[in-house]
Amino acid sequence: RIGRSLYYCIHAFCQGGFDLTGQDLVGLRYHVAVHGVIGSLAVLGGLGGPALYELVGRLLRRRRCLGTYVHWVLGSLACLYLCGVAAVATSQVLPYFHDELQQGITGHAQRPGPLTVQQMGGILADASFLSISCRSAGFHTLAMDQVEPGARIAMMVLMSIGGATGSMAGG
Description:
The protein contains 6 helices and no strands. The chain is 64% helix and 0% strand. The protein is an all-alpha fold. The radius of gyration is 18 Å and the shape is globular. The model has no long low-confidence stretch (mean pLDDT 79).
């Protein structure tokens, strides 16, 4: 377990995205620690060396302020993250509303029951992790056959954008 954990952490930072099990991180879909650690390392690896150097200097109080490049990188990262979460989550939620409309018209629905708070939390967690990972690391906690077509398109757009200049992300 420790070896596999280290392997995934290194590959998250280095933007490798290689899978050892054939299921990626699907079995760890709702583990907050996995989302936090792998997601954070993927973000740090996606920032790039110059931005990391300035951020570490600022944290260690060697620098008084961050440069323009770091502000652009952090701003674009935040924008892409929020847009990615919104696009993936919306694409994953829309079929529930479509099914409710379908049930109102025909009396039949494909999904059992309405969208619950727990399901919405899972959708947001998946969307958050996919928004981070698609741009850089390539890991996923949701089986791709469970991803709606609109979310797949949003993921492809994020994959084509990639990480920041000078980062470990291939893009």
